Amino acid sequence: MVSDYSISKKLTWMNMLVSGAALLLACGAFIAYDVASLREGMIYNLSMQAQIVGFNSSSALLFNDPHSAENTLSALKAWPNIVSAGIFTPDGRPFASYLRGRDGRVLTLPPILQGKTEIYRFNRSEAVLVRRIVFQERETGFVYIQSDLEGLKVRVAQYLGVAAAVLATSLLAVLLISPVFRRAIAEPIVHLAGIARIVSRDRDYSVRATPTSDHDELSVLVDDFNDMLSQIQLRDAALQQAHGELEQRVAERTRELSASNKELEAFAYSVSHDLRAPLRSIDGFSQALLEDYADKLDANAQDHLQRVRRAAQRMSALIDDMLSLSRVTRCELRREKLDLSAMAKSIASDLQEAEPGRCVDFVIESGLTAVGDPQLLRSAMENLLRNSWKYTSGHPTARIEFCRSEENGLRPFIVSDDGAGFDARYADRLFGAFQRLHTATEFPGTGVGLATVQRIIHRHGGEIWAEGEVEKGATFYFTL
Amino acid sequence: MRIKKRGAAKRILGRAALDLARKWRQRVLLRWAVSIAFVTIVEPCISAQKGKPQEYEVKATYLYNFARFVEWPATAATVKSDAFTICVLGQDPFGAILDAVVAGETIDGKVVLAKRVLKLQDAVSCRVLYVSSSEESRLKEVLAALDKVCVLTVSDIPQFSQRGGMIQFVQESNRIRFEVNLASAEDAGLSLSSELLKVAITVRRNSQPGD
């Protein structure tokens, strides 16, 4: 509502200022012009009176009859603005005088005329005109007439009054007319502003400004504003449609993806599960052959059967790993606070118990904790430590360390050893499933362990990477 | 008293804030008073001191000035003359004064000349004729000779205007004034300006035969 007031007020003020200034200028010019012409007229009148008086007193001057001259001067009574008048002889002596009232005074000497017939001067309250009296081309004396400016002042006062009245009337008229301007200019703008506010506040692009009946820039503005709203509305609708479509497509894809993923997992599970039965038969019957027909089989055949059994057992181990890998991705994640140091110590003691002959030094930093799934993290820790345990087996003594780096912002956990290590060029192949950098004869394994570790770490939202050098050990970093 | 007033004014000025307007008014009043005093007291004294020559100087000027307020009929013989003559009939009281007054002057583009005439027939050719007091005895004869002739007659002779003369000088308390017999002038075909009549003491309008 403030804007409503301000814009119409502005218009009203503008109109009043413009018309007021124009009127003031016009009145000022008229008054100035009129004062100038009034003064001119006054001087003209004084000059005429001086001429008449001068003409009518020339005989009085020539025949030295001041009384007659005074009679002539007394005719000036008819002009109430004439304060005094006087006639002087050519040599400047006073000859006759006229005074309007007792307060009047006779000028002592007329100002000297320098080759002019008449001169006049104005001051604040009076005008004085001095004229040479010439009779038959001969100077016979001087006449002066002194007039007050009451007439002029009254006229100026009247003009000022009229000007003030005109000004007041005009400003009143402007005030009365300004609602018309408001209707024509301010109201459409105010309306437009209101619509714009609704649009920006409510994000409602369906509103429209009411078009004006005129055909001016304002109506163009209103039409264009409405056009813009329509365009925004169209684009908004298109955007929302696209958004909806996209979401629908994503949902579809997600559905498809999870379906195929489940299918794949189910397939992998069933494959590994179903593969076990024939494997067990192969292994079992091979064992039966070895036990029941040991006397009939020569050493070569027995060796072949032993190989069959090993291969079957190896395959069984592979299937177990695959199952555990798929379990990592399928099972629900629980989150609780875990003491990783304690976990590492228990794993280390398990390993040492299993192979008491090895001389391995475990250095485990105490008090390292993390939040995660206890089963999965134990599996990850076990894989990493078992990995180190395995690859240090070629060395008579070894050192396996678990600690936490304080170096950078990530503060990764570290599992390091001084075992076989690996070629840094193949570091990216370490975490691939069934990818191995060493042959099975060198170090036994299926190549699934580190892949499982990576999956567990990734499921916890962490990262894992490794550094290493051949025969100088390997270091695994992971964050959670 | 005026001086006392000024003294009082001075005291006021000296004592309190000066009243410029009053001071100025008083100064003007003083100047005015001095001027009036000059006109009413000092000037007549100067005139009185100079006596007779002053009187005839004025009269000589008047003779010339009368001519400027009179119109002669276009048919008059004197109008056709190249010169504008002002004549003195009889014993001349002006001397060189009249010649000095008219020297270099013109009326209607004609050079003004001063002439002394003794014979009446010479007076006919004049525009203005001053009849000297010496002619008082034969005034009737003079006026009769000039009857219906376009000559403006002027004289100091007492009752000149009553007796048929046109303009008669009259001494009136240190001032020289004149009487006009308008009828005589009109009989002669001269027209006298109303401006002239305005400053005359008396104007005789009805035709009266000289007594």
Quick structural gist:
The complex is a heterodimer of chains A (480) and B (211). Chain A is of the alpha+beta class and 480 residues long.
* Unreliable sequence segments of chain A: none
How do the strands line up in the largest sheet of chain A? 2-1-5-4-3
Radius of gyration of chain B: 24 Å
SSE order of chain A in H/E notation?
HHEEEEEHHHEHEEHEEHEE
At CATH level 2, the architecture of the largest domain in chain A is 2-Layer Sandwich
What's the count of strands of chain A?
A: 12
- What is the terminal separation of chain B in angstroms? 56 Å
- Number of folding domains of chain A? 3
Distance between the termini of chain A: 59 Å
Strand proportion of chain B, as a percent range, falls in: 15-25%
Structural class assignment of chain A: alpha+beta
Folded structure, characterized:
The complex is a heterodimer of chains A (480) and B (211). Helix content of chain A is 57%, strand content 16%. By secondary structure, chain A is of the alpha+beta class. Chain A has 3 domains: 7-169, 2-Layer Sandwich (Beta-Lactamase), CATH 3.30.450.20; 205-330; 333-478, Histidine kinase-like ATPase, C-terminal domain (Heat Shock Protein 90), CATH 3.30.565. A 5-stranded antiparallel β-sheet of chain A has the order 2-1-5-4-3. A 5-stranded mixed β-sheet of chain A has the order 7-9-10-12-11. A two-stranded antiparallel ribbon of chain A has the order 6-8. In chain A, strand 11 and strand 12 (473-478) form a beta hairpin. In chain A, helix 4 runs antiparallel to helix 5 and helix 5 runs parallel beside helix 8. The longest helix of chain A is centred in the middle third of the chain and has 76 residues, at 217-292. Chain B is of the alpha/beta class. Chain B is globular, with a radius of gyration of 24 Å. Chain B has 8 helices and 10 strands. In chain B, the strands form 2 sheets. Chain B has an 8-stranded mixed β-sheet with strand order 3-4-2-5-6-7-8-10. Chain B has helices spanning 2-15, 20-50, 52-68, 96-102, 120-123, 139-145, 182-187, 194-198; strands spanning 70-71, 83-89, 106-107, 110-117, 128-131, 152-155, 167-172, 175-181, 191-192, 203-204. Residues 1-18 and 42-53 of chain B have low confidence and may be disordered. The N and C termini of chain B lie far apart (56 Å).
